[in-house]
């Protein structure tokens, strides 16, 4: 079922979250198609927050907004319309970047982190009482292509998740990196790491390509791995999920997610929400990332039943100007 373009207040759709957003860019009415994955309904809206702004969705449901002219920033809750003002940026955001919140926004120590996906640089500030943004570089080694005449380039972090105030990332196949906030006396993110052997994957089939996602769920760190046969990204062969046991520093395979549903998207976006509360299928992984950019479908993987389902919008919609992205229920 499709609704016509309406006013730009999304609060009327609060009960329909999570949403997949198809942003069509600067077409005649600057509208977006919003698909509720719970009931399959779609709605055409003109969302003012998506006009003349850079918007970065976060796994905690809030959306980071930076005005492209003034560089004024805020955190927007699409379900309530509330906005939390943030300091203005000194310069425009990188072309490709992610936004993470270190904790729930009710925490007085919650940080907003902008992770540059083109170079090893981070930008952060406090949600409450932050007066300016702090820029920080980091070093996770060099990217070297064997046999290439091109010089090595600095590696940068793409996959990151925030759990209980810390930011975790995969520094190497058998190592987990951690960024922790310190003030000594200037604010900075201190980088440490610990050894954590890569999990043993269950399938015996040859798999040459994969995607890995880190995410937080119920204050725990999870890893979701998607495997593709050969080097073809048009079909997922297997999906595995793991929980980090911090006492053992070990990835433990998890098949039953309980009431959780995991939502995966472009640019390593990964979030978790209650399946029962939001009308999703319990214990499933929702994967909305078409690597080729030519379809609008998403996939649902049931980890217990070992089944998969390909689902698309109920009507034809134009291919979006940017890859479809998630708006998930906001955490308090």
Automatic annotation (TrEMBL):
<feature type="domain" description="KIB1-4 beta-propeller">
    <location>
        <begin position="35"/>
        <end position="301"/>
    </location>
</feature>
<dbReference type="InterPro" id="IPR005174">
    <property type="entry name" value="KIB1-4_b-propeller"/>
</dbReference>
<protein>
    <recommendedName>
        <fullName>KIB1-4 beta-propeller domain-containing protein</fullName>
    </recommendedName>
</protein>
<dbReference type="Pfam" id="PF03478">
    <property type="entry name" value="Beta-prop_KIB1-4"/>
</dbReference>
